[in-house]
């Protein structure tokens, strides 16, 4: 196809395309790989992700937020301020009796769904309603959910939807980002009939997303006084803000790290999973959050959703930022050790592995003797066999450091039970 994000090429027969993709969908559901000239790779990849996440093609999007929780959440969401722009640019489509306009957050939760009463009722039959979760993991292939997954504007046409109950619809969606940080805020979507599968609908939602980002850029509030958080190489977070300093206990340290990792805000349930995994107790999590908020004060931390109001510089976020800029040496210098090393909170463990893995990979890839030495001389890197081997590979046969490196490699191979198998393979 000329444009992989468009559902139909110019002159394509939509009826024939629906039939071809529908057959491919049924074959895929039966266990065959998605194939055929009619299949777009972005759709095939989405089907694979959907099949892993969902029990089957008849799954229905769950409703996660309702009533007061929904009202409170969306009123505090950054996209609430852009709603007039969405209505101005897409309101005509939402009022024509054939389309729905929808806005979702970065997790695929629908915040607003607008259209005529008749069209809204049709959307309700597939749970396309405010508060429902329409990311791929909960609703399968669909324009807003897949646009979030691939971070690109696109169309999903009829039988390209993974869930059968959605295949009578066609939709076009575009992701929206925070212009200051680049983080994903959500997506804008138009849902309707097959006639939406044209370049104009895709251009329209993309233009609307760009207009929203431009508005947010020009209306960015002045941030509160910046603060800093030290969490690398220590088991208790130290937070500095407006001349005050807090040394937090274990659970509050973990909560603050999780809040910093999700500046867009998190629900109590999401923080509970990050803190305790599947054994999270909503009552315990709310109690911990209440104590942390009382400690920090409402000027620094807010609820519904839970998030920090000020711009806080966190050392575990600085390291990946430096790596993104290609500044490996600076990132290694800023790295004081693993993030909250004794924490077993699932969300913290995941972040720890992510930071450690990215930094270690960058050091290994750089093949710089000084960087490798710095890593190996640290408490967390002294037993890293692969880094020792990379370091030894850079040493010439006459280098005085080579015997020491070879001895250390042999020690680690013995310790890890690798020496015997390596010797056997070399004989």
Automatic annotation (TrEMBL):
It holds the Pfam family GAF. Gene3D superfamilies: 3.30.450.40. InterPro entries: GAF, GAF-like_dom_sf. Residues 120-212 form the GAF domain. It comes from the Bacteria. This is GAF domain-containing protein.
């Amino acid at each position: 196809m000329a444009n992989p994000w468009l559902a139909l090429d110019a002159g394509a027969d939509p009826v024939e395309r629906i039939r071809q993709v529908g057959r491919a969908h049924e074959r895929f559901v039966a266990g065959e790989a998605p194939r055929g000239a009619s299949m777009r790779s972005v759709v095939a990849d989405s089907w694979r992700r959907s099949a892993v996440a969902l029990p089957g093609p008849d799954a229905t999007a769950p409703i996660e937020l309702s009533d007061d929780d929904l009202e409170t959440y969306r009123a505090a969401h950054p996209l609430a301020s852009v709603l007039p722009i969405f209505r101005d640019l897409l309101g005509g489509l939402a009022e024509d009796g054939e389309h729905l306009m929808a806005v979702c957050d970065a997790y695929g939760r629908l915040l607003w769904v607008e259209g005529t009463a008749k069209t809204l009722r049709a959307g309700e039959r597939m749970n396309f309603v405010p508060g429902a979760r329409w990311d791929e993991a909960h609703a399968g292939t669909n324009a807003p959910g897949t646009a979030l997954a691939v971070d690109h504007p696109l169309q999903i046409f009829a039988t390209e939807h993974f869930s059968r109950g959605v295949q009578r619809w066609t939709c076009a969606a575009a992701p929206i980002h925070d212009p200051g940080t680049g983080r994903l805020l959500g997506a804008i979507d138009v849902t309707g009939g097959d006639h939406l599968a044209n370049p104009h609908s895709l251009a329209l939602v993309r233009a609307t997303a760009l207009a929203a980002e431009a508005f947010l850029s020009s209306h960015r509030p002045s941030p509160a006084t910046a603060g800093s958080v030290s969490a690398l190489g220590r088991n208790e977070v130290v937070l500095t803000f407006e001349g005050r300093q807090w040394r937090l206990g274990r659970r509050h340290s973990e909560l603050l790290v999780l809040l910093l990792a999700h500046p867009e805000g998190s629900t109590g349930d999401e923080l509970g999973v990050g803190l305790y995994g599947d054994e999270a107790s909503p009552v315990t999590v709310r109690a911990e959050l209440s104590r942390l908020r009382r400690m920090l004060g409402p000027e620094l931390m807010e609820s519904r959703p839970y998030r920090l109001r000020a711009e806080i510089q966190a050392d575990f976020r600085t390291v990946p930022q430096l790596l993104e800029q290609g500044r490996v040496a600076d990132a290694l210098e800023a790295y004081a050790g693993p993030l909250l090393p004794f924490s077993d909170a699932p969300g913290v463990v995941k972040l720890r592995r992510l930071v450690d893995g990215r930094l270690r990979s960058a050091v290994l890839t750089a093949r710089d003797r000084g960087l490798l030495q710095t890593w190996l001389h640290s408490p967390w890197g002294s037993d890293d066999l692969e880094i020792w081997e990379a370091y030894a590979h850079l040493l010439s046969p006459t280098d005085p450091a080579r015997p020491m490196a070879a001895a250390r490699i042999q020690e680690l191979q013995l310790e890890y039970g690798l020496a015997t198998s390596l010797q056997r393979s070399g004989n």
